[in-house]
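Sequence in, structure out. Go.
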Amino acid sequence: DIYLIPAGYEGYVLAVYNVRGAPALNYEGDFAIHDINESGYFVTSQSDLDYGTVTDQYFYMDEKGNRSEITAECIRGIGTGGHERTGKQGEMIKLVYSGIEITSNCNEDFPLSANGMDSEETEPMINEIIQNFYYESK
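Output:
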């Protein structure tokens, strides 16, 4: 996957799959593009993540579309997860996601300091996605 993250963004980044009404994945060669929004997430209707060897690439992207690579010392994986709840119409909402954390306080220890996902960080993103794709009238 290629993650395109708004320039200067810090914090959690989620790629959320199986979102009803979200766009399909776009590709650049063999890489799926994850265009992260200002809230720190990307959504797709693709039903599930790709599993296997991780070859993800991370870039900051400015307003003009210029990319600058984010170094490994600034990124830590926070794992994968899922979220289930019953929607307003009684439908089952089942989201799957993968995440990273980005910092400007980059050092060689940051990627190794595994702290997992913090629900205080992920829940607002998940709630916004559910509100936008399941609760607002389309």
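Check: The chain is about 10% helix and 40% strand. Residues 18 and 47 are 4 Å apart (CA to CA).
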